[in-house]
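Researcher: I'd like a structural prediction for the single chain below. Treat it as a standalone chain; there are no partners to consider.
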Amino acid sequence: GNNVLRMSSGTQIKPKTTVQKSKTSSPLPCSPEPAIKPRPKPSDKLNPKTIDPFGAHSRPLSAFAAIYAKGGIPCRLMHGSVKHRLQWECLPETVPFDPLFVTLAEGLRETKHPYTFVSKEGFKELLMVEGAAEKAIPLLPRLVPVLKAVLAHSDDEVFVRGLDALVQLSAVVGPSLNDHLKHLLTNLSRRLMDKKFREKITVALQKLEQYGGKVS
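Model: Treating it as a single chain, here is the predicted structure.
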């Protein structure tokens, strides 16, 4: 019954215990990833937390994509059988507009999925929350230059997203946008020469006039 092993030399060696205390505690919500990563699933490509901005074969990410990859956008794409939707980590009403609203506007320039959907839907849904006008109006000086760049983009789909976002913004902030319209109309007039955009831009201008009042 003695746990001590006796060697021929007379040296006493205690056997090594086979029970070790666990060095890891229960995982935290933002705990670092384990050293050995599981094999990625195909769906992980759309998960912002699995996007590796420093991957050997990945191109440099845009500012919006980098923020999204780091989990800086508090919503994610949910695939539906009929259509996709956004799932917010918290209620949109509780999300600070600054800087998220401007960041989503910058994302309108994206041309890759899921950034295109997240930026478009996120921008629209923030404008739908209660008190959106009071939150958005102070950001107009920073927001308008971003929308101007979106409307100047060579990609047709990017331009359409920017035009839709402009109308959505005008519907919420109303006449507060009037002083900034002169920075945006030049890009609209250029596209107005294109037949495929003529009707859509004309309708957008009519809505800007409606929401902005006589001054617009």
